[in-house]
């Protein structure tokens, strides 16, 4: 039976309109003012906004961190439930091969993790952690398999490749019109500084951000953008966290380069003082790049407001405090890097952005959904409420308030960096391809997620 969402305000990245929306099967079939109820089942959404399902373009729902057998606290089953319950209907997860593995094997492994377990729709960025003729030949194979975006690393010894390899990969990706995102930090400098601090007995979480100062990120951003200029490839910068990196982006744009910039909620609402908390609490915030200064935070907000930052995703990568983060009690460099966040992004950005009058709701829709869909070849199947698009809809109640809490969260991890944060606005119900899957922040219909096949050129 079709469903009629009646009395709400439909929001896109450019405007808002009072429209009823009819869903049938998996798609939006009709939109208009005062639509007749007919045979439809009605959800009265008066007082609510209808937002296109949010897309998180940067998750590590399942990741082995390369330091022994440590896997993330969440997996596809738990992470996707936490995502969709609060409004994120699609994730682009980082498929990460192990050394020596083919991209095809990695894709099969990620399909195995997600298929039948995911409660939101999903696709992947394919990580390229080594470069050789076999991997090169697989770039086209990935695009043919619906994976149009790739990820590389300039830091992390088990993941990073050389500049020349990045350059070669860029040229191959450019041949097929794919999208590349890179983790920008100077890995050599990070290693130098970790060795120095550890040798000096400076081993508390306080030292984590000091091994990765803004220059470490900005240098890598500048170098990456110069390599991209040489390769003539539009590129994405993931989790950009500093003012100096944003300045490097401005320079690249001024010389005519197309650069996409992603930042994350943690860089907008948390800051570096948290590394100095008592009882090893600072370990909870160990992620890379690290949390930054209030000056960086202000520069990032300015970028979000002006539009020099394009998207906000989470870098969700959850490790428990007890038993995982605590492994680094006597050496911060052993603390697994990453924080949970796939569940909290919509409420945080609404609270600190929209309700705080920093950005409009239209801008939030762009940052969390529409512009991500356009960048990653998901649009107009995803990222917009219009006739013919997937019926991924968040019924957003701006009056709902709440408090983020580790005790009540759906993420399968023993803490949240936002514990006790008061929020304004929340998803009242969430539709995934026409099915109501969540209500009042809880799952009512799980494991309905599906792989989204992406095609180059769809992102217009
Ligand atoms: N940074 C993190 O903190 N965790 C996962 C990967 C990354 O780049
Ligand atoms: Zn990264
Ligand atoms: Zn990441």
TrEMBL record:
This protein's GO cellular component annotations are:
cytosol
Cofactor(s) listed in the protein's UniProt record: Zn(2+)
Q: How does it get modified post-translation?
A: Carbamylation allows a single lysine to coordinate two divalent metal cations.
Q: Which InterPro entries match?
A: Amidohydro-rel, Hydantoinase/dihydroPyrase, Metal-dep_hydrolase_composite, Metal_Hydrolase, Metallo-dep_Hydrolases_sf
Recorded GO molecular functions are:
hydrolase activity, acting on carbon-nitrogen (but not peptide) bonds, in cyclic amides; metal ion binding
| Keywords noted in UniProt | Hydrolase, Metal-binding
Q: Report the residue ranges that make up the Amidohydrolase-related domain in this protein.
A: 49-435
In-chain residues carrying the UniProt-annotated modification N6-carboxylysine: 151
Q: Which family does it belong to?
A: Belongs to the metallo-dependent hydrolases superfamily. Hydantoinase/dihydropyrimidinase family.
PANTHER family from the xrefs? COLLAPSIN RESPONSE MEDIATOR PROTEIN, HYDRANTOINASE/DIHYDROPYRIMIDINASE FAMILY MEMBER
Its protein name is Dihydropyrimidinase
The lineage, from the top, is: Bacteria, Bacillati, Bacillota, Bacilli, Lactobacillales
